[in-house]
Amino acid sequence: MTDAEAQLIEAARERLGARAVVTDVQEIEPWVTDWRGRVHGAAPAILAPASTDEVAEIVRLAAEHRVPLVPQGGNTGMAAGATPPADGSALLLSLRRMNRIRSISADNRLAVAEAGVILATLHDAAHEIGMRFPLTLGARGSCTVGGLSSTNAGGTQVLKFGTMRSLIAGVEAVLPDGSIHNGLSGLKKANRGYSLDQLLIGAEGTLGVITAVALRLVPAIAARAVAWAGVESPSKALDLLRFLEARTTSVEGFELVPEDSLQLVLKHIPGTRAPLGGDHAWDVLVEATTADPEHDISAELERLLGDALEQGIIADAALASNEGQAEAFWKLRDSISEAERAEGQTLAHDVSVPVADMPRFIVDASAEVERRFPGVIASGFGHLGAGNSHCHGRAGSHAAPDWYDSEGEAITRFVDDLVTAAHGSISAEHGIGQLKRAEFARLAPPGRIHALRAIKQALDPLGIMNPGKLVP
């Protein structure tokens, strides 16, 4: 611990109380490694403010003592964006104590939630007033609103509602000089120059600390229908999506799952079972919803899937008969990353290409990776309708302690080159963090890199906000 860190920790303890400062090594240890266990950091303390004013005080102290801060929510990120440096040169700034829903209104269709509010808690609060927040993902029981905003998270409902950016009506944040930006009014029209809100969303804590957000709500669903369908290829899966979109506006979830990913889930996740009999090279999870209690959404989806079966678009399908079965279907999709982690070393490539090109890209990229790196197992799954695929590579027979840093790095460069050649993005929804920073610098247009660096320097001249993340 440096003298500057010790002075900041002592000052924070004096001004904010003992609860705001954690120095016990065992309490800190779970929070200095990323979710996948790839990146290990160190921090002499966790600072845990309970209010925006306390965050501002901590940031002012950090600026005074020139000590970097790493903001952190639920620590569920996939790009190590909330993991501190390994040399212990930064303090963790946990937003988990800031977990209040300050207001929620069905009339305004807005909720103002602090950064530490867990997504599932927000879902429950919205449900209680007959509304919902239409973004969800597998980590909803532990990910936080602040982290979702800072990474511009996507999830499984982007098809209909867009990413986190489109669902945020305003941001409150502490800027690197300790001043507070309050944009929580939720006004639909407010032209006042540069949008600080939009700069902060997706900035991964490099431009300030998001402390609260105003979030758009939509009416609660009256009913949903969830189905699992077998298809012969990603191309057929996209055909199914277009078939459904031409006949209904009710589809909001459409997830592609390859057979090998399904088998991993069945192998490692207790209580799971295959929804369909027989073997299908690819599967699709479809969710359709309605806010109209008179609309029989299950009957509509059943009829449409029957028509798709007759036309040869799908090979088989099962419609969930109750909520328990619907949740079981979703568990298969949501548990893929957990199952991969249980299987062993996995490279997670969160990429996007134009939607029409995604079926071919998924198949071709996986085949090219396995051809270029024999023994590695490659596959793609995810949000087909949003042009977002999680192109993962499993070490397979190549597993070794240094695999990520040796062959894994070469595989990542290979995949990223394929994505760039396809006019895509090497980060669709997980952010850049630490893991993609070097590749971002290698592949991004020079003008974009220059602009990011200029913005970072202008707002954070001391470089104390989440150093080593996002900006090359």
What does the model show?
With 472 residues, this protein is an alpha+beta fold. It has four domains: 3-94, 2-Layer Sandwich (Uridine Diphospho-n-acetylenolpyruvylglucosamine Reductase, domain 2), CATH 3.30.43.10; 101-219, Uridine Diphospho-n-acetylenolpyruvylglucosamine Reductase, domain 3 (2-Layer Sandwich); 223-336, 2-Layer Sandwich (Alpha-Beta Plaits); 344-431, Alpha-Beta Plaits (2-Layer Sandwich). It is 36% helix and 20% strand. The chain is built from 17 helices and 18 strands. The strands form five sheets. Strands 5-6-10-8-9 form a five-stranded antiparallel beta sheet. The protein has a four-stranded mixed beta sheet with strand order 1-2-4-3. Helix 9 (234-245) packs antiparallel against helix 14 (358-372). It starts with a helix and ends in a 13-residue tail after the last helix. The mean pLDDT is 94.
How is this fold's topology laid out?
Blueprint: H1 3-16, E1 21-22, H2 25-28, E2 46-47, H3 52-65, E3 69-72, E4 91-94, E5 101-105, E6 110-114, H4 119-128, E7 131-132, H5 145-150, H6 158-161, H7 164-167, E8 168-174, E9 180-182, H8 196-200, E10 209-216, E11 218-219, E12 223-231, H9 234-245, E13 251-258, H10 259-268, E14 282-290, H11 297-310, E15 316-319, H12 323-334, H13 336-343, E16 346-352, H14 358-372, E17 377-383, E18 388-394, H15 407-421, H16 437-443, H17 446-459
Parallel strand pairs: 2-4, 3-4
Antiparallel strand pairs: 1-2, 5-6, 6-10, 7-11, 8-9, 8-10, 12-14, 12-15, 13-14, 16-18, 17-18
Helix pairs in contact: 1-3, 9-14, 10-13
